[in-house]
Amino acid sequence: MSDTSPKPWAATALTLFPEAFPGVLSASVIGGAEKSQIWSLETVDIRNFSSNKHRTVDGTPAGGGAGMVLRPDIAAAAIDSVPKNGRALIYLTPRGTPLTQHRVKELAAGPGVIVFCARFEGLDERVIEARQMEEISIGDYVLAGGEVAAQVLIEACVRLIPGVLGKAESTVEESFEEGLLEYPLYTKPREFEGRAIPDVLLSGNHQKVEDWRKAKMIEATQARRPDLFDAYTARQERTKGDAT
Ligand code: ADE
């Protein structure tokens, strides 16, 4: 009989530090979902593809300068050892396109990811081109290597796979779904160090609560993320235009 169960969403991390995995990916619902075989994680040690007896994987930068560069032949051998199976091949680098929830959704809907984590100054440009790697950054700051960035990307994807989050952690109403930041949250106690929960949240009036939350989302987005706010207002203008 053929196996009709869906294949788990598959992540493969190529790294010089396999011990950095699973890291945070073994915790909580994400780790539980791996145990339930909703998704899988495999690591490949790039150093295993070095052909010299010292197992070196890097060289000095052509043209001079500080640091070392990961060799393209070794990187390519590591990449080529992994069955692609239709997955995105991603190189995590501060030079990459910023990661967005939109791209995360696309990746989560696909068969999985192969993530390449570099150390040193980075990876030789030629292997990035030759293997058509997608370069992704998780933000405008520089990490010591791609491992944490890879875990950020994988976690963001895995939580969107159906069956990973329970109803309680639903992803329907959250930051970026509407292009706005989330509203502030409150719980017990009713008063904390002289600060009360806003009355409207205790009013039991669902419409008023919804309106208050929407206003807070807009307020936070305008104050903290003018870029998202401008995109939001432009979208609002367009839908208004479409309606007339
Ligand atoms: N490697 C080092 N810094 C990084 C960043 N900001 N994003 C992705 N990969 C990285």
How would you explain this protein's 3D organization?
The chain is of the alpha/beta class and 244 residues long. It has two domains: 9-158, SPOUT methyltransferase, trefoil knot domain (Alpha/beta knot, 3-Layer(aba) Sandwich); 173-243, tRNA(m1g37)methyltransferase, domain 2 (Trp Operon Repressor, Chain A). The chain is built from seven helices and ten strands. It has helices at 28-35, 72-80, 101-109, 125-130, 147-158, 206-224, 226-243, and strands at residues 9-15, 39-45, 58-59, 69-70, 88-98, 112-117, 122-123, 134-137, 191-192, 195-196. A five-stranded parallel sheet has the order 2-1-6-5-8. Strands 3-4-7 form a three-stranded mixed sheet. It has a two-stranded antiparallel sheet with strand order 9-10. A hairpin with a 2-residue loop joins strand 9 (191-192) and strand 10. The mean pLDDT is 94. The structure holds adenine. Adenine is lined by residues 92-94, 137-139, 141-143, 146, 149.
Write the layout of secondary structure elements.
Layout: E1 9-15, H1 28-35, E2 39-45, E3 58-59, E4 69-70, H2 72-80, E5 88-98, H3 101-109, E6 112-117, E7 122-123, H4 125-130, E8 134-137, H5 147-158, E9 191-192, E10 195-196, H6 206-224, H7 226-243
Parallel strand pairs: 1-2, 1-6, 4-7, 5-6, 5-8
Antiparallel strand pairs: 3-4, 9-10
The structure holds adenine.
